[in-house]
Each structure stands twice: as C-alpha cells, then as structure tokens.
Amino acid sequence: EGLRLPPYQLECNGEQSELTFEGSWPEVMLWEIPALAVLMELRSRAVLDGMGRFELQVLYARAMTRVWEKIERLRDAENLSIADFGTRRRHSFLWHDWCVQAMIEGLGNKFTGTSDWHEEHDGNLRIILPDTYGTKGFLDNAPDWLAGWTGIRIDSGGPAEGAEIAIDWWKSRGEDPRSKRVIFSDGLDVEQILDLSARFEGRVQASFGWGTLLTNDFRGLVPDDALAPFSLVCKAVSANGRPTVKLSDNPQKAMGPAAEIARYKRVFGVGRQDPIEVIV
Amino acid sequence: EGLRLPPYQLECNGEQSELTFEGSWPEVMLWEIPALAVLMELRSRAVLDGMGRFELQVLYARAMTRVWEKIERLRDAENLSIADFGTRRRHSFLWHDWCVQAMIEGLGNKFTGTSDWHEEHDGNLRIILPDTYGTKGFLDNAPDWLAGWTGIRIDSGGPAEGAEIAIDWWKSRGEDPRSKRVIFSDGLDVEQILDLSARFEGRVQASFGWGTLLTNDFRGLVPDDALAPFSLVCKAVSANGRPTVKLSDNPQKAMGPAAEIARYKRVFGVGRQDPIEVIV
C-alpha cells in the first residue's frame, strides 16, 4: 500500500537497451516482473506491427492450438499439479490471460493458479530455492532445521538430478521425502512435465511451475522466428557497490564478474556442473 | 423485388428429415442456397452445443489455421483465378464470412469473389453447365452456336478428363480453346486446384469455383468427425407430376428413379462412366 517502484534508468545504444533500477532490495526487487513483462510485450508488438489482419488471426490461432494441445496432453496425466509461472516472460498481457483461462477450463484442479504465494501464505511458503550458489553445496552445509521446510524449488541444472539430490538430502536428515514437495520450474514444457511427474510419482510430491513455454511459445510461428521467447532476466548486479554473483546449477546461467564467479564456486563448494542449453 | 420464397414442407422422421418445396421453377429454385445453408448451420450448431468455451476457440483456431494454410499455398501459384462457391454448404454464416475475408487478404486479385454472376452479367455469363445429362453426349449433339459461348463448367466426373473433352470439342468446332474458360467446381481442394491449374496453363483459361472445402473443412476436428461436411443437395424431384432425372458425369451423383436414369442414359447417349467417391 502506498508503494511506488523506485525510478528506472533506460539507456538505449543502437539495438542494445539497458534497463536498471536502484533502490532498497524489498522495493527494487518488485521491478522484475513488470520490467520483463513490458520488455517482452514491446518486442511482441514490434514484430506484430507489420502483419495483416488475417496473418495476425492465424498467428494467434496457431498459438492457441499449440497451447491447447499441450493442455490436452497434460489433462490425460494423473496426479498433476501445475502452476502458471509465466507472468514475467509472457508474450503479452492478453495472451497470458488467454493461457490462464485455457488452463482453468482444460486442467480443472490440476491447475493451481498463478504464482502468488506471497499473498496466500503470509510471505513464507517455506520452499527452499537453493540454486543461487549451487544446490549440492547449499544443502550439504544447510542446518538441520531447513530439512523441516515444506519443499524445494528446482530452478536450474538437470531437474531430475536436482530432485534426486533433494530426496537424498531429506533422507540423510531423517525426513520422509514423500511428505515433501519438489517444485520444478526451469524452462519446463509438456514433455518434461510428464516425464518428471511419472519419474517421481510416489517418491515425492512433485509440482510444476510452468512459465515461458506456457505463456510465450510462439516458436516457429513467424519468419526468422522473431517471436520466439528468449532468456530475458532481471538480476541484482551490485549491492553497496560490490558486484553480486549468481552461480545457478547450470554454469550457462551464472552471472557476475568471472573472477567473482570462480571465487564463489570455490567458497560454496560447487562441484562439477554440466552446462545445459538455455532456451528460455 | 417483392419476391417471397414459396412455402416449405418439413417432415421429420426420427433422425431423417425431409425438406421439400413446391412452386414455379424460377421461384422454387431460389430455395436451394438458403435451405442447404440453414440445414448445414443447424447441424454445426447442434455439434457445437456441448462444447466448452476454449474447446470452441481452439476448434475455430484449428479451422482458421487450416484455411489460411490452404490460402498460403494458393498464394504462391501464378495465374490463379478462384471464386468462392461455398455459400450453400458452409459451416455457418460467420465462418463463411471469415473465409471470404481471409481470401481477400491472402489472395488479392487471384480471388474473384463469391459466385454472383447473376447480378453482374445480366443473368447470362454464357457458361455451359453440361453434366446434367452427361457432358460427352451433350457436347457431341450440341448446335454449333453453343461453341461460341464463353466457357464451360466442369461439375462432376474426372475434372481433367472433362476439360480435355471440352478442349477437344472446341477444336472440333473451330474454336481456339485458349480463348475459352473452363470453370472447375466439383469438390475442389487446394491440391486439385494447383494440379489442374498447372495442367491447363496455356491451353485454356482455367478458373476455380471453390466450395465446401473452403467454407466447411472441419474434417477431423471433433470426435466422430461430427463436423465433417457431407454431400447435401437440393434437387428438383418432379415437374408436373413426372419424376426428374439428373445423370451427372459421376454415376454416384445420378438422381431419380433407377428405371428413368437408365432410360435417360440411353436417350442421351451417355457412354461409360467411372464412379468417383463423393466427399462433398
């Protein structure tokens, strides 16, 4: 209430734009969702601008068919629990709305809504998001009370491997993984959701945060693939004048000065990491 | 002006309905288009009735994509001339309108409009529609002045064969086929349009009356193929108490009492006819 997002700085250099925000962390972090959504929608609108009326209709007809066919495949699977994590990188506001409505009609209570744990859970779902400095090292060094939390997010790296690490970790701390929740949320699409769901059935409570490939799968629908989603992120780059680092479980997603990344990897005991191509 | 369609009689017998009209030929013949269009749209609405909001959207998204992909294929072909002949058996009024608008945007002046020669040509385009009693016999026995007409409709039988018969006939009557028009209009779809267009390029002016598979191609889009178009026709069954007969160039499309069909075939010198499956 009464919150205003801190001011933004936009620098455009030819085809490159740099959008930065400065402010206190609790305020400035709220920029992430609107900033990414606005950038992506501007890109979409720029591409759509030159298209004819029927070309546009058919573009959306194809995209609708694609989303619906994904939903139809998910509908047939049992014990699914899927949330919409696609706000930030959505094709557009209206398209996002269409996708959510389609999920409601198509998936019924398998669809658990759009990511809004903040309001519903008093700001704390007690879900570990461990990949910032590497999942394995984080969990190995975590205090026992963390194993009592509800679950874990698998947001980078091989998702099955990440979940196995979490399951082993819970077991090693005397917890029953079947009472724990694993939320997969890294670049998911239908195939992976179905595979992971089948693989972890009965071993852990799996749920899925389906993002960009739900709300922005326009791959292959226009020439030069000009509407394909890309890996647009909004990250803290410095705090109190010091550069920040994110390691991730996928070295392709690491961010920060190279020397700092290397130092953090050493400090946080990050072992071998396999690079995985980042699609979205 | 001031015209009223003659009254109709509708008899429903379980799943069978019989819709008949009686009146003077110039009046009663005008029933054909609205009667067929209304029946087909009632069928469509009955099938759509139980569908969900997004199922409906995606059904139309798929149908739009299909029509547009057809148009895209036609767009790349040269020297095409296509008219919309799909009013009678259209999926629905609104869908027909969409298809026509899409043709306008997609095909530009390759699309020559919806069949309305009546208004534009004072009721006489001078196009022969010879298949009622068999094309071959009709042309062989036709008076020479008929070869002076603008062109011919190929509305049943093998379309390439029919056009070859017409070309040979014009030559035999001293006419240059390259100045003549052949209008193909029997159950056309893109593949056939492109094939026939290529085959007769430079030999005759080919144009295409694209009907049911333009305005009602919902094949395979709902369970049990309940929206697939079918061969719905409206024909004169008797005149002054005597049964009427249509022979067609495809014996599958012949109509009338079997004995009368046989007699007409003999009288009009219809030779061998190959049966062709009727899709629409």
Counting copies of identical and different chains, the oligomeric state is: homodimer
Largest interface in this structure? A-B, 16 and 16 residues
- Give me the strand/helix succession of chain A: EEHHHEHEHEHEHEHEHEEH
* Helix proportion of chain A: 25-40%
Gyration radius of chain A, to the nearest Å?
A: 20 Å
- Class by alpha and beta content of chain A: alpha/beta
Mean pLDDT of chain A: 92
The residue ranges of chain A in which pLDDT falls below 50 over 5 or more consecutive positions are: none
Number of strands of chain A: 10
**Main sheet characteristics of chain A:** 6 strands, parallel
Strand order of the largest sheet of chain A: 4-3-8-7-6-5
- Tally of contiguous helical segments of chain A: 10
Distance between the termini of chain A: 33 Å
Annotate the secondary structure layout.
Two copies of one chain form a homodimer.
Chain A: E1 8-13, E2 16-21, H1 25-28, H2 32-48, H3 53-75, E3 82-84, H4 93-107, E4 111-114, H5 117-120, E5 127-128, H6 135-140, E6 151-154, H7 159-172, E7 181-184, H8 190-200, E8 205-210, H9 212-215, E9 238-239, E10 242-243, H10 258-267
Parallel strand pairs in A: 3-4, 3-8, 5-6, 6-7, 7-8
Antiparallel strand pairs in A: 1-2, 9-10
Helix pairs in contact in A: 3-4
